Amino acid sequence: MARVRKRKKRPLNAKQQIFVAEYFKCHYNAARAARTAGYSQKNSDVAASKLMAKPHIRAIINCRLAKEEAAREREFEARLNALPVTRSKLLAKVFASIQASRSADSKGGSKT
After folding, report:
1. Which residues fall within 8 angstroms of residue 26, CB to CB, at 6 or more apart?
2. Domain ranges in the chain?
3. How far apart are CA 14 and CA 86, in angstroms?
4. Which of 27, 30, 96, 111 is most exposed by smallest CB count within 10 Å?
């Protein structure tokens, strides 16, 4: 039976660390992140493609993307849960305003 080897975690070098950080700052633009990290201006798209193909770099990016997605989902749920409360308060204010204007009209009487 074939043995499956576990890969050792490979630490990122300084340029790779900058690339990963800039990838998120540049709104997922790998070529711009590569240029900012110090890779060649001329071949930044090639460098970005090679960096994104490296499993250890891709794993870090995928992990962070998953965390960001989970955070967005939590924020969306929180906003969604707060919405009915806000809506009901807004409707209560509108109805109170309508009732107040109607009672003011009925007290003042209408002249015809």
Report:
1. 32, 33, 36
2. 14-107
3. 48
4. 111
Return the CATH architecture of domain 14-107: Orthogonal Bundle (1.10)
Tokens linked to 28? 């997922």
Which among 40, 34, 41, 2 has a CA at the least distance from the CA of 18? 34
User: Which residue is it, tokens 């993307």?
Assistant: 65
Asked whether 74 and 82 are in contact (CB, 8 A), the reply is: no
Nearest to 23 by CA among 56, 65, 54, 55: 65
CB 14 within 8 A of CB 39: no
Write down the residue that tokens 């806000």 correspond to: 86
Q: Are 51 and 10 in contact (CB under 8 A)?
A: no
pLDDT of residue 85: 63
Position of tokens 């633009």? 29
